[in-house]
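Tokenised fold entry reproduced for absentees:

. . .
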Amino acid sequence: MSVNGITSATSTYETYQTTQSSAKTATESTTANVSATEEAAAVYESSSSSETTTTTYTQNTELINKMKADAEAHTQQLQNIVQQLMTKQGQTYNTANDIWQFLASGDFTVDAATKAQAQKDISEDGYWGVEQTSDRIIDFATALTGGDPSKIEEMREAFKKGYEQAEETWGGELPEISKQTYDAVMEKFDKLLEEAGLTTEQTTTN
């Protein structure tokens, strides 16, 4: 074999070795990069899984104030309604018995027709009787709260205040029929609670 042949073969071998070495280095480098990437990904996933999400709740003050004002308005409405109903009931009762609050001296006497109508109005089935008057008060309370059973005690308290205001307007205790109506309303509030499966404690606001 000639020197040139040996030299050529040697060069070819060295070139092959260099190529192989470069390929190996490139492969090792790629493998290292892949491993590093996988490791980084693993660390990221681990870090992500350990994060805790915190939700912050903020009061809607504007809505709360609006709801409070709305509830107070409805409560005041019922108080006014009760005051008017109970006062009118008392006046009708007194008319039926020949007694008029504003003419307590006895100078006023109702005519027979007025007295008969008043007696009819305060009868058991009359418009100003215990049953119908107490039903109207409960109906007003239910309408004002939209039937929300959690508001029953608020409406009960509004009724009590309305009744007290009616007594103040009247100038003392209301007639017996009004006291009977008061008891009937309280019983009907109790019935509403029972039907809703609630107790007074569950609907009483602080």
